[in-house]
């Protein structure tokens, strides 16, 4: 099971345009990363807050609902996060177009 | 005695005369007789006199009789008023004296009643109102005294048990035991009384000591609405809060320590799913425009070039390929029955002479263009596959004749049922698998090299069987189109089935395409109705038009696509000369009634029967030898598989509008088509 996940993560990392992948645990501490330390810590901290805020919005509107994915598209790249109660998976991609 | 008393009333205050027998020491005031009655008739004004309340001889009465005193305030020189029917208290001998005003037939009268205590008599003196009572008057009247009934003002019951109530035969010492003895009492003696005693008033003493102060700590916690919701949801489940979340330090990618993998194990399933979806996002970011075109979301209408010519463009969108599918030919493509985004692809060896590398079944999604979402390897080449009507099950036919039912919802290969030669399966490769609606539900029909058409239930138990057995006698007769060929001597009776198609209509039939070029019309009871020699070589594909059940196409190795109608028994009504090489696959468009797509050699061609039938409206060279073809469920895209393991997706652009009445369009397009 874990090997498959590893493989998927490796594939994501080697996908065209991706420049970073971070896996953060529930406390906001990065577990896996492919970027340098400073950016990782920065991303992890800021993104956790964003994910928490987004989740609280969704759940306050309807407690039976829950947040599954969050994509933040910026001028330079796109940040995709998949929050869960145990972890947050963050991928930063630079789409070619 | 009373009269004596009464006579002395004349010396009362009512009398104006001063009585020398008055014993009042203060002495009454000499005053003029005052009228007794107030004009309002409800007050009696008594002349205040110096009545000494202490002395019992304030009254005008003799001492024997007693004295009366007013119950009201005794302030002298103040006019007192006594209300109606007030009782003047009298002490001792006389119980009551009523002084009241009564209404009687004679007008208002005064009534003075003195009631004796012991003597039950009362006499009243009635004095009409307004009159001044004089002595004479008093003597005229007789006043009697009566005793009224005793009015109880206060009653306090005694709570002490009288001694004579205790049972004589019991040796009782205290009241407590007496009460207890009540219960032993005979029913006869009912002299029972509830007794209560007052307890002693014990002295209470309060004492206090100092304790150590209790330590307290304030903890704040915010509970949002969804925390409460989660709590109610988790009530039945065991709490997983105790799970350790080890604090990992930031480690680079390549270092996968043991602790990390443990952490991964815990989160693996969810992480895997999220990773998969993120991959889809990544892919769609790169192929956004292509996906838009695939889903028909980018219709470019060039206003300037408004001509009535439709170009029928085939725009290449993307290719499905991955490392695993390299060097394997795409043998079959099948769309999922419910989710039109999932495509199952069978990989294997196209030519039987190729090296056996094993087969593969991949499930591709239109959302993830770079990676198949499911990959199931097999030892043999997979030659046929079909989704069951319940879209989770995928039925796979292998080259060694096995039929396997897979559950696509799992990423690992999970064969649910398997059918091989032992349970009555095929000998040789299974060429076609189709999922049809049978009498009692769903059935899977398989056709193979051995000439059998087998009908299975979903759990792969065989229901029916059909042999493509053509008697030699029939074969000799039907030798259409073989005029310039050598005389063929039929040697076999059973022919391998390469494809079949069910025509559902008023007169249902199964059209079976064989390897020798025979097209069989088979009734639903699996009896051959007719044999037609369709092509010179194997018929690779037969398909009934989705719009008209009486029309079918066949694609053969002679490079032709023939159209057959029920009305014309022995010959096709239309022939499309696709190419010189074999037409490996042809398909009707599921949305456009007159469009046919053909794959032959390296070319993909689109034919529109309504436009022209001598050449295709558009043709594209893919670049690799094609093996299979399928339309997307909405008919706007074409997917072709080739022998290198790639699947090319093309979108049909610049198409005319769909005909409103598809059957009419077909009738118009194909001359000679007559509907039964």
UniProtKB/TrEMBL annotation, chain A:
Subcellular location field:
Cytoplasm, Cytoskeleton
SUPFAM superfamilies attached to this UniProt entry: Roadblock/LC7 domain (SSF103196)
List, alphabetically, the GO terms of the cellular component aspect. Answer: cytoplasm; cytoplasmic dynein complex; microtubule
Q: Coiled coil located at which positions?
A: none
Instruction: Please give the InterPro entries that the UniProt record associates with this protein.
Output: DYNLRB1/2, Roadblock/LAMTOR2_dom
* Residue ranges occupied by any Roadblock/LAMTOR2 domain in the UniProt entry: 5-93
Recite the UniProt keywords alphabetically: Cytoplasm, Cytoskeleton, Dynein, Microtubule, Motor protein, Transport
- One GO BP: microtubule-based movement
Domain of life where this protein originates: Eukaryota
| GO MF term list | dynein intermediate chain binding
Provide an example Pfam family for this protein: Robl_LC7
- Family, similarity comment: Belongs to the GAMAD family.
Q: What does the UniProt record say this protein does? A: Acts as one of several non-catalytic accessory components of the cytoplasmic dynein 1 complex that are thought to be involved in linking dynein to cargos and to adapter proteins that regulate dynein function. Cytoplasmic dynein 1 acts as a motor for the intracellular retrograde motility of vesicles and organelles along microtubules.
Q: What is this protein called?
A: Dynein light chain roadblock
UniProtKB/TrEMBL annotation, chain B:
GO cellular-component term (any): axonemal dynein complex
SMART domains, sorted: WD40
One annotated GO biological process:
cilium movement
Where it sits in the cell: the answer is: Cytoplasm, Cytoskeleton, Flagellum axoneme; Dynein axonemal particle
Name the domain of life: Eukaryota
Q: Which Gene3D superfamilies match?
A: YVTN repeat-like/Quinoprotein amine dehydrogenase (2.130.10.10)
Q: Which GO terms describe its molecular function?
A: dynein heavy chain binding; dynein light chain binding
Q: Where is this region: Disordered?
A: 1-36
User: PANTHER family given for it?
Assistant: DYNEIN AXONEMAL INTERMEDIATE CHAIN 4, DYNEIN INTERMEDIATE CHAIN
What is the official name of this protein in its record?
Dynein axonemal intermediate chain 4
| Protein source organism | Cloeon dipterum
């Amino acid at each position: 099971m874990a090997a498959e996940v590893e493989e998927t993560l490796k594939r994501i990392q080697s996908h065209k345009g991706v420049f970073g992948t971070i896996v953060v645990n529930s406390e906001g501490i990065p577990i896996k990363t492919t970027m340098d330390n400073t950016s990782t810590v920065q991303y992890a901290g800021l993104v956790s807050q964003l994910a928490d805020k987004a989740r609280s919005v969704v759940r306050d509107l309807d407690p039976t609902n829950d947040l599954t994915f969050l994509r933040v598209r910026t001028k330079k790249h796109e940040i995709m996060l998949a929050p869960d109660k145990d972890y947050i998976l963050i991928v930063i991609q630079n789409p070619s177009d | 005695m009373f009269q004596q008393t009464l006579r002395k009333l004349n010396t009362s205050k009512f009398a104006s005369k001063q009585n020398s027998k008055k014993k009042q020491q203060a002495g009454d005031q000499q005053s003029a007789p005052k009228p007794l009655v107030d004009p309002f008739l409800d007050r009696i004004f008594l002349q205040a006199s110096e009545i000494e309340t202490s002395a019992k001889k304030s009254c005008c009465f003799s001492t024997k009789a007693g004295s009366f005193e007013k119950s009201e305030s005794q302030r002298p020189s103040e006019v007192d008023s006594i209300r109606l029917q007030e009782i003047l208290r009298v002490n001792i001998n006389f119980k009551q004296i009523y002084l009241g005003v009564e209404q009687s037939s004679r007008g208002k009268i005064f009534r003075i009643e003195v009631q004796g205590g012991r003597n039950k008599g009362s006499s009243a003196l009635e004095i009409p109102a307004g009159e001044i009572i004089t002595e004479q008057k008093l003597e005229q009247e007789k006043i009697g005294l009566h005793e009224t009934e005793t009015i109880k003002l206060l009653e306090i019951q005694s709570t002490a048990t009288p001694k004579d109530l205790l049972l004589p035969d019991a040796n009782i010492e205290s009241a407590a035991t007496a009460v207890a003895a009540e219960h032993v009492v005979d029913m006869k003696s009912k002299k029972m009384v509830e007794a209560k005693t007052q307890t002693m008033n014990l002295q209470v003493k309060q004492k206090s000591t100092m304790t150590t102060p209790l330590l307290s700590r304030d903890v704040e916690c915010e509970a949002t609405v969804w925390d409460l919701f989660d709590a109610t949801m988790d009530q039945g489940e065991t709490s997983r809060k105790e799970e350790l979340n080890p604090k990992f330090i930031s480690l680079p990618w390549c270092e996968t320590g043991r602790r990390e993998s443990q952490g991964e194990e815990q989160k693996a399933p969810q992480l895997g799913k999220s990773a998969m979806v993120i991959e889809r996002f990544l892919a769609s970011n790169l192929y956004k425009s292509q996906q838009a075109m695939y889903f028909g979301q980018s219709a470019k209408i060039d206003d300037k070039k408004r001509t009535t010519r439709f170009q029928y463009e085939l725009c290449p969108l993307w290719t499905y390929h991955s490392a695993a599918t390299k060097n394997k030919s795409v043998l079959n493509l099948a769309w999922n029955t419910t989710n039109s985004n999932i495509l199952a692809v069978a990989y294997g060896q196209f030519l039987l002479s190729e090296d056996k590398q094993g087969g593969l079944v991949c499930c591709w999604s239109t959302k993830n263009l770079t990676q198949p979402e499911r990959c199931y390897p097999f030892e043999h080449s997979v030659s046929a596959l079909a989704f069951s009507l319940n879209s989770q099950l995928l039925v796979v036919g292998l080259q060694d004749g096995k039929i396997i039912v897979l559950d696509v919802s799992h990423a690992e290969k999970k064969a649910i049922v398997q059918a091989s030669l032992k349970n009555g399966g095929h000998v040789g490769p299974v060429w076609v698998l189709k999922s049809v609606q049978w009498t009692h539900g769903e059935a899977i029909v398989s056709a193979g090299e051995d000439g059998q058409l087998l009908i299975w239930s979903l759990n792969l138990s065989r229901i029916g069987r059909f042999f493509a057995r053509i008697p030699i006698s029939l074969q000799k007769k039907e030798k259409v189109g073989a005029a310039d060929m050598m005389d063929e001597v039929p040697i076999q009776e059973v022919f391998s089935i390469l494809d079949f198609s069910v025509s559902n209509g008023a007169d249902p039939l199964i059209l079976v395409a064989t390897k020798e070029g025979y097209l069989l019309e088979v009734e639903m009871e699996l009896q051959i109705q007719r044999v037609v020699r369709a092509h010179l070589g194997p018929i690779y594909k037969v398909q009934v038009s989705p719009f008209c059940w009486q029309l079918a196409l066949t694609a053969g190795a002679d490079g032709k696509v023939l159209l057959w109608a029920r009305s014309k028994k022995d010959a096709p009504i239309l022939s499309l000369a696709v190419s010189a090489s074999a037409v490996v696959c042809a398909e009707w468009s599921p949305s456009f009634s007159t469009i046919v797509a053909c794959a032959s050699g390296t070319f993909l061609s689109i034919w529109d029967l309504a436009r022209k039938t001598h050449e295709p409206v558009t043709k594209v060279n893919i670049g690799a030898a094609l093996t299979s073809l399928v339309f997307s469920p909405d008919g706007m895209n074409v997917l072709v598989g080739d022998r290198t393991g790639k699947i090319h997706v093309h979108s049909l652009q610049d198409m005319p509008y769909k005909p409103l009445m598809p059957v009419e369009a077909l009738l118009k397009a194909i001359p000679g088509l007559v509907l039964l």
